Amino acid sequence: MQSMSDRINNFTSFSYGKSVILGELRMGNWFATLFKGLFGKKEMRILMVGLDAAGKTTILYKLKLGEIVTTIPTIGFNVETVEYKNISFTVWDVGGQDKIRPLWRHYFQNTQGLIFVVDSNDRERIGEAREELMRMLAEDELRDAVLLVFANKQDLPNAMNAAEVTDKLGLHTLRNRSWYIQATCATSGDGLYEGLDWLANQLKNRN
């Protein structure tokens, strides 16, 4: 049977050990908070739109999975999270068929970055693409969103280059809007991450 002094010593040892554990937990939480502040992931909500068949869904899953997927025209939306350079991009890929374009506005709220995908090989509809882009940029909910244009399908022989797409879309007429155009090929992935680099830098500059 333990003596009173042994019980006191054991209780003291247990209490001391508990204090050490609690102290370590608090210290661990403090370091976790510190590292989260220094290195924690930032989040960015991205809306990706464009006319139908521009390559939006192919781009989304090339970024997400690193491979080409078989796609069908998007009715509604696809949404995926893409992790890149300590930033978590939530990318909403919204269908581009003319009958569902009026629904785009339902995705505008809280959007920080707008990716507008253009089929650089489709010269007949570049004017239509410009109209849709300018209509969106006039929306109040997108007034602070940065604009990244993907001049897609650069692998096709008759594709317009980035400078020509810039001119056709009237990007140089934009005022009070951060924008960037990147030549891309969704199937190979060329240019996609350069575009994300620009978006990431824009987000960092705002914080």
TrEMBL record:
InterPro entries: Arf1-5-like, P-loop_NTPase, Small_GTP-bd, Small_GTPase_ARF, Small_GTPase_ARF/SAR. Belongs to the small GTPase superfamily. Arf family. Mg(2+) binds at T57, T74. Keywords: ER-Golgi transport, Golgi apparatus, GTP-binding, Lipoprotein, Magnesium, Metal-binding, Myristate, Nucleotide-binding, Protein transport, Transport. Pfam families: Arf. It comes from Soboliphyme baturini. GTP-binding protein involved in protein trafficking; may modulate vesicle budding and uncoating within the Golgi apparatus. SUPFAM superfamilies: P-loop containing nucleoside triphosphate hydrolases. It is found in: Golgi apparatus. CDD domains: Arf1_5_like. This is ADP-ribosylation factor 2. Coiled coil: none annotated. It comes from the Eukaryota. PROSITE patterns: ARF. GO terms for molecular function: GTP binding; GTPase activity; metal ion binding. GTP binds at G50, L51, D52, A53, A54, G55, K56, T57, G96, N152, K153, Q154, D155. GO terms for biological process: protein transport; vesicle-mediated transport. Its main location: Golgi. GO terms for cellular component: Golgi apparatus.
